[in-house]
Amino acid sequence: MSLPFFGWEVTYDDESPRLELGASQQPKDKGVYKMYHGTSVANARLIITNGFKQSSAGMLGKGVYVSRDQKKAERYPLNNNHSDRVALELRVRLGRVKRIDTDNHPMQYTWSTQGYDTAWVPPNCGMKAVPSGLEEDCVSDPQRVKVVGIAKAPNTVLAELQKLVADSLTNPSAGDDGAPDACSLCKRKTQQGSPHIKQPCWGCGKNICTLMSKHVCSASY
């Protein structure tokens, strides 16, 4: 006897990091997340082509400043006209994370010398250095940050920047060295040499991954 197959829905109870996490949620150590960085059009071209460089200073010291809140990135550079602002979409390997949530925190500028890869300032923590109240992160090693898309850019340069990103993704040397990729279907991490199994659904023919949390077959019987 054969039964029609209409799909599935599961809930994972593991700690496998996903690419997306709310800005108010504390990032997991060793997680890989979608984040954003705001910059000028000229700097966007340089970053996409050559990768990030450490900033010389900042509220958390040297590093690459990013956020999981796209609105935060869209505010930068603060003094630039909207026609000269670009929000880059990033894939970031956080490594070991230190929470910095008070002014004059004893590790505000020294976290990177004490075994941490990323400093995290949670939203609405009350720090005077973050009047917007929006989440902010500082990643010490630029190689942990990779541009994977353009979240927002002026229409006059959007296509140009998107092409630069597409070209850069074929060059693994421009940041994100050795980072695990994410499955395009289930969005869960994949390990090198162990790709997820992808195949057409027997019913509707749509490409599926066996680790997807949900699939509803659109075929009618």
UniProtKB/TrEMBL annotation:
Coiled coil: none annotated. SUPFAM superfamilies: ADP-ribosylation. GO terms for cellular component: cytoplasm. Transmembrane segments: none annotated. Residues 33-108 form the PARP catalytic domain. It holds the Pfam family PARP. GO terms for molecular function: NAD+ poly-ADP-ribosyltransferase activity. It comes from the Eukaryota. Belongs to the ARTD/PARP family. This is Grass carp reovirus (GCRV)-induced gene 2p. It comes from Notothenia coriiceps. The gene is gig2p.
